[in-house]
Amino acid sequence: MKNVFLLLSLFSVLVNAREYKVVFDCSSADASYIKSRMWLVGKTIDMIEEQGDTAKVALTLHGSCVAMVAKDYDMTVPDEDVQDIKQSQQYLKKLAKRKNVTITACAMSLAHNAIEKEDVLPFVKISKNSFLDTIRYQNDGYALMSFK
Q: What is the DSSP string of 42-83?
């Protein structure tokens, strides 16, 4: 009887589990804000998973937000922003280790910020145009969360 109850409970959890699909789009130039948002993305995924649901997460980076994907970011950001970008990159590295997270940087933004493709962290995908990626994610049912 105990096993039947356990199986029914497990079945109920599986049937009621939801999948969250979200694209976090970052274009902000505010290093402190970017840092807080990278932390919040990880925390949000944790909260979704703690309630028994799943998350499929895309993170699209463009504009000044791409500085955190550079291996040598201290040459591309103002001195006062280096610590925030360093912490943002640490959060980004943690996110990249999750199997349900895809991180993409815009090639046009990388070029605009003088970041060579060879200097981009290895887990970051490079897209010709992150607007196209964001549109595709939305067309595929992903909710859009923008960090401006």
A: HHHHHHHHHTT-EEEEEEEE-GGGGGGGBTTGGGTS-GGGHH
Strand partners, 12: none
Helix (H), strand (E) at residue 145? strand 143-147
Please give the chain's pLDDT, 148 residues, in tens. Answer: 566 555 545 555 555 789 999 999 999 999 999 999 999 999 999 999 999 999 999 999 999 999 999 999 877 889 999 999 999 999 999 999 999 999 999 999 999 999 999 999 999 999 999 999 999 999 999 999 999 8
Beta-carbon neighbour count of residue 111 at 10 Å? Answer: 12
- Listed as own residue / partner, the contacts of 36-39 with beta carbons closer than 8 Å and 24 or more positions apart are 37/147, 38/68, 38/87, 38/88, 38/91, 38/92, 38/95, 39/91
7, 46, 44, 79: CA torsion to nearest 10: -170
Sheet holding 143-147, edge to edge: 125-127, 101-106, 54-61, 19-26, 143-147
The pTM assigned to this predicted structure is 0.86
